[in-house]
Design goal:
53% of the residues lie in helices and 10% in strands. By secondary structure, it is an alpha/beta fold. The strands form 6 sheets. Strands 3-5-6-7-4-8 form a 6-stranded mixed sheet, with helices on both faces. The longest helix is centred in the N-terminal third of the chain and has 27 residues, at 27-53. The protein is globular and about 130 Å long.
Amino acid sequence: MSKNIIMEFELSKNNLYYHDPILSMDPFSRFLIKAITIFTNIILIIGAMLLIIGKLDNTKLLGILILLIIAHFLLNKNKPNKKFDAIFFRKINKGNSFNLFDYVNNNFKKEMRLGVERAISSGGDLKLIILDHLFLQKKFKSILLKLDINPDEFRILLKQEVLKSKKNIKDLSKKEIISIAENLVIMAFSFYEKDFISENELFLSIFFAKDTALSKLMNHFQFDFNDVRSAIIFARFKKQFINLKRVPLTLSSFSSPLQAGSGRIMNRAWTARPTPKLDAVSIDLTNRAKLEQIGFMIGHENERKQLLNILSRPSRNNAILIGEPGSGKETIILHLAYNLTRDAVPPELFDKRLVQLSISQLVAGGSPEEILERTKNIINEILIAKNIILYIPDFDNLTKSSGENYLSVADAIIPNLNRGDFQVVASTTPQDFKKDIEPKKDLSATFEKIEVNEISEDEATDVLSYISLILENQYQVNISFRAIKRSVKISKRYFREKLLPSSAEDLLKEALAHIRNSGDNDFNEEDVVSVAQMKINVPLSTTQEKEAEKLLNLEDLIHKNLIDQEEAVRSVSQAIREYRAGLSRKGGPIATFLFAGPTGVGKTELSKILTKIQFGSSENMVRFDMSEYQDKKSIFRFIGSPDGEVGGTLTEAIRKKPFSLILLDEFEKAHPDLLNMFLGVFDDGRLTDNLGRVIDFTNTIIIATSNAHSDLIKQRIEEGASVKKISEELKNRLTDYFRPELINRFSKVIAFQPLLPEHISQITILMLNGLSNDLEKEQGILLKFDDSALNQLVEIGYSPVYGARPMRNAISDNIKSILADKILRKEISRGDIVAIRFDGNNFIAEKSSEE
C-alpha cells in the first residue's frame, strides 16, 4: 500500500467500489449531458458579459460574480470532490463503504470514461486502451524517456497490441468492462501519494495489473513495474524540485498530508505540563515536525510497524533501534515525530511529544553527583508532564556517563522504565549493544529490540530518484533512470563501506563530477559503470565482443601463467563463463572449489590468476591459513567474539570487500565446528557474524586447498588414471576429513597432479620471464638466459615432494643475488643487456652486446 496509509488498517475491497453514473449511460445520454453542460456554460458566460456591459451597476456586479464563479470552477475542475483523511481510514476500518469516484480527480474520470467508451464500442483490452491514450500526455512520455525508451517506438508496439487484443479478447459485456475499470480504480488506490487518486495512480495500476501483452512489451524494453514506480517520481515532482538545493526534509508540501493534529506541548485533556529543565538539554522533535523540518522516509516499513506496536502497548513499551551507522535509525524516529503531529498513529499515542535527549548537554561540566541530580530533575518533569516519549540516541553512552562508584544515567532510569513511568526510544549500533547494553540484563530487559536493516534496492532507487531531481538542476544534465538504478545495483554489490542509499548517492555524484566538463548533457548508466570500473578495476559492463572472446579462450589465458593442471583450469574457466553469462546458481557464492593435491603444484597460483581475471587485482584475494584455526576458541577470531569486543577476520574482511576470492589454505586442519559453519556459506552465500549481521558471500569465489590424500593422487597418476576419475575417487576418500554434506556443497572437487621435470622447466621459464620483465620495466636492464642456466635452475629447484615451490628460492639465491651485487656496484646499469649462464660451477652474469 501507499506510504500514506500510515495507520494499521486492513482494507478490504468489499469496502471500496467505483460508481461513475456517466459510465452506466448509453452514448446518446452521455453526449446529451456533455452538450447541455457546454451550452449552459456558454449561456452563463454570454449572460455575464451582457450584464457587465449593461448600464445598471447592480447587474455589472452580478455579471462579475458569475464570471468569478465560472473561473473558480474552471481552475478547480480537476480537483476531486473529497480527499482522504484520518476519518476516512477510521470509518473504512469499521466496515463503512466508500465510492472512490468522490476521491479521484477529473483527469482520472476523463481517462476512465474515454477508455470504457472505446472498449465498449470497438472492443479490445481496456488497460491497453487507457494506457495508449495516457501516452498522449507529455508527462507520461517523459517517464519513458527517463527509462531510456523511445516513446514513439513504444507507442507503435502498444498500438499493435491494442489491435491484437481486439481480435483475441472475446466480446465483453458493458457490465464486465465496467467491472474491469472498477478493479483498476481500487488498484490505483493502493498507490495513491497525495490525498486523492490521480491519473498517475491509474498509470501505475495498469503496469501493476500484469497484463500478458503489456508484460511482453516490458520485457522487450527491459523494465519492470518498480522502474515505472520510481521513474514516475520525476513526472510528479520535477517542477517543485527545480529550485531546491537538497531533497526536502518532508514531501508533505507536495503530497498534501493528512490534517495536522498535535505537535503541541498541551494535550487535548489539558493535563500536560511544561518541561523547562528537559528542554534545556533536548530537542523537541514533534515541534520540528510541526514546522515540517523533518519526516521524509522511504522504506523501513517493518521497523516502523514494530515501533508503533511497541509504543502503543500498555506495558513493556520501550524500544531500542539497533543498526549500523547510516542504516536509517534516526530517519525512523524523525518520521515517527512527523506522524505524531498528524495523528497518524494509534490513539494511544495521540498528543505525545517526542523529545530527543542530548547526552553531551546533560553531562557537560557536571560531576557524577550533578549529572545524577540533573537526571532526577528531568525525570520528575517527564513524570509530571505525562505526554513525553524520550528519544536517546547512542544510548550506550548513557552507561558510561559517570565514574566507577556512581550510578550511570542509564542505571538511574531503570526503575522508571521497569514501572512503565514513561516511555523511552533508544538507538545504538550492534557492536555497542553487544558490548555495553546486553551484558546489563536489568537494562536490556526494559527494551524491545528492533533491528534496523539497510533499505532494499527498490527503496534506495526511490530515494535516489528524488535526489536526482536536485542533481539534474545542479549539474545541468539529464539523468537517466537506468543510471540511477545501476548506481544502486553496483553500490549494493561492490561498495559496502556505506549502506544504501548513501553508497549509491556517492557513486552517482562521483560519476556526475567525472562528466561535468565533457559537455555532454545526457548522463546514462555507462557513465556510472565507467567510473565504478575505474574504482574497483573490475569489468562491470555487459559482455562485449572483445570480452566474450577472452572468456571463450580463458583456458589459454590462464595457461600463460600456469603450467599443466588441465582439469582444474577447465573447471574454473567454465565457472567464470557461466557467471559472466548470467547462468550461475542464484543464492550462493559464484563458485566453490576444493583444490586437493601435493604442495607446490599450482593450487595457490591458479587462485591468484583467477583473482586477477575475475576481480581485477590480486589484492582482491582474502587468504587464510586454516591451520591457525584448529581449536574451538579460534572460531571466535574467524567470525568475532560473542561479547562484540573482537571482530571476525573472515566476516570483517568480506563485509568490507564483498567482491573477492577467498582462499582457505589447508582447509582440512580447521576445527570441525568451523568447517560446519561453511555449510551455510556454500549453500546460500550467507553467514551471520557475532553481532547478528548477515555477511553476504554471493559475490565471492571460495577456494579451499588441501594436501589430504596426496599420495593417492600420485599413485593413481602413475597407474595411468585420468585426473577426472581421480577427482571422483578423491571426493569419496575425503570423507576421512570432511563431512559428506560439506564435500557435496563444493561446485567441484579437483585433483591437482604432481608436476614432472618438464613442467618444472616450463614454470622456471615463466618465473625468469617475470623477473626479466620486472627488471626491464623498473631499471631498463634486459636479461637473457642460456640453456645452461635454465637446466641448472631446474635441477636445483625441482623437488618431487614440494613441486615448484623451491624454484623461487633457487632463482633468488642464484640469480637475484648476483644481479643485486652488480647493480649496487654499478657494473650493470640502465640500457645494459645482461646474459646469464652456468659455467659448471657458478652462475655468471655479464654484459652482452647481443640484441
